[in-house]
């Protein structure tokens, strides 16, 4: 089996509402690039990547000359063809590699007639648990703003009733820390039996991170995720706060994982199938974490159904996955895969059982959302459409005003 062609299609799939985060916003849609890798046996493997609100089509198709004639089974050679570590100092292709790796695993699974998780060691669970991913958000159509503690609790309750979540993650770093502490504690009061996690995306100062962590030590926390930036900052918070610390920002490769093993800064590593360059590196990293008793979770970087399938196959094969995974998936209004969005059942999503990744493209929806992308274009992920001229700093001091309703975009 040899690769004969690579195609890329950028789509804009609507979110229920624009979502705020510490470094900007998701502007009411996810811009994702869907990758199709065709082989000489007629099979087509699927991949997916994001781009901070921008298309990655040209970067993907530029790899055609590297990959035409490549055997999809040769995944280690693929890594060096695309993301040689020295060459990557000039042209970092980690997420491009991930999308192609997804597609090659999909091709191999289809060729052999087995699901991806069988190629990765075999599943140890049939479904993967997920946390509700709670965002402050702008009002949009029938979807109300999420700004106040009461609105946040109402939104979490609706998601719990609809999808069965028993773990709730608040994406913070938008409003002043004391205000977000009030919101977080309101979740704890409303859902006393459920577990919680807080993630301000590394924008708190060291003092704020320690103060916030100590203020929630009495709650039913999974962990405190990226309160401050960097391994050294996280290590200092970890020494002063009595709960596990987690990261998805600064343990995203094996050099950083080694540093965390040698001098512990975080207790939980959120593995992202795009940030790490594919599913296989995440499995390898999870093995290192298992050896050194570092917890693992599955991170979400804004997925549609293709990348969600990679997260599910990853979650299926990790015996040391003891935390619910993250997903933006329930914030989407639709998807580009056949059958529509994969359903949640009791807070879990079933692992696909079909060959390869186990999902196929709905060509009609792919075309429709490609047209929507052409109509709307890119957006800057690191800007907030409601705060003209604003941009984030780390640590941040320029918070959104919690007294201003999120009912319109400027």
Find the CATH topology of the largest domain: TIM Barrel
Outline the biggest β-sheet.
Answer: 7 strands, parallel
Sheet with the most strands: spatial strand order: 7-8-9-10-11-12-13
Percent helix: 25-40%
Protein name: glucarate dehydratase
Organism: Actinomadura namibiensis
Enzyme class: lyase
Pathway: Carbohydrate acid metabolism; D-glucarate degradation; 2,5-dioxopentanoate from D-glucarate: step 1/2
Descriptive overview:
This protein is of the alpha/beta class. The protein has 2 domains: 124 residues, Enolase-like, domain 1; 232 residues, Enolase-like C-terminal domain (TIM Barrel). It is built from 13 helices and 14 strands. The strands form 4 sheets. Strands 7-8-9-10-11-12-13 form a 7-stranded parallel sheet. Strands 1-4-5 form a 3-stranded antiparallel sheet. β12, α11 and β13 form a beta-alpha-beta unit. The longest helix has 19 residues. The model has no long low-confidence stretch (mean pLDDT 97). Its EC number is 4.2.1.40. One of its GO terms (molecular function) is glucarate dehydratase activity. Keywords: Lyase.
């Amino acid at each position: 089996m040899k690769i004969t062609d690579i195609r890329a299609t950028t789509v804009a799939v609507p979110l229920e509402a624009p979502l705020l985060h510490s470094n900007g916003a998701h502007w009411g849609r996810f811009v994702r690039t869907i990758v199709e890798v065709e082989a000489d046996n007629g099979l087509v493997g699927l991949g997916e990547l994001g781009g901070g609100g921008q298309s990655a089509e040209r970067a993907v198709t530029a790899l055609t000359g590297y990959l035409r004639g490549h055997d999809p089974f040769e995944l280690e050679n693929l890594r060096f063809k695309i993301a040689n570590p020295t060459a990557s100092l000039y042209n970092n292709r980690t997420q491009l590699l991930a999308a192609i790796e997804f597609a090659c695993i999909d091709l191999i699974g289809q060729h052999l007639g087995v699901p991806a998780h069988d190629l990765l060691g075999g599943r140890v669970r049939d479904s993967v648990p997920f946390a509700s991913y709670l965002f402050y958000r702008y009002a949009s159509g029938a979807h109300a703003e999420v700004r106040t503690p009461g609105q946040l609790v109402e939104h979490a309750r609706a998601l719990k009733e609809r999808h069965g979540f028993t773990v709730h993650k608040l994406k913070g770093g938008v409003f002043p820390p004391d205000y977000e502490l009030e919101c977080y504690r309101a979740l704890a009061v409303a859902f006393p039996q459920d577990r919680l996690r807080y993630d301000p995306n590394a924008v708190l100062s060291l003092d704020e991170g320690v103060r916030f962590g100590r203020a929630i030590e009495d709650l039913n926390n999974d962990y405190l995720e990226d309160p401050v930036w960097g391994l050294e900052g996280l290590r200092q918070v970890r020494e002063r706060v009595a709960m596990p610390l987690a990261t998805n920002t600064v343990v995203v490769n094996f050099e950083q994982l080694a540093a965390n093993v040698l001098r512990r800064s975080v207790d939980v590593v959120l593995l992202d199938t795009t940030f790490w360059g594919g599913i296989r590196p995440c499995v390898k990293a999870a093995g290192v974490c298992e050896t050194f008793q570092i917890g693992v979770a599955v991170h979400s970087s804004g997925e549609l159904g293709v990348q969600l399938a990679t997260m599910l196959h990853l979650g299926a094969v990790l015996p040391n996955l003891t935390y619910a995974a993250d997903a933006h998936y329930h914030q989407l209004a639709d998807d580009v895969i056949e059958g529509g969005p994969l359903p949640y059942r009791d807070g879990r999503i079933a692992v696909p059982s079909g060959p390869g990744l186990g999902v196929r493209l709905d060509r009609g929806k792919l075309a429709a959302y490609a047209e929507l992308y052409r109509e709307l274009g890119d957006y800057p992920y690191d800007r907030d459409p409601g705060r003209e001229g604003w941009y984030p700093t780390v640590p941040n001091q320029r918070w959104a005003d919690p007294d201003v309703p999120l009912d319109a975009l400027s």
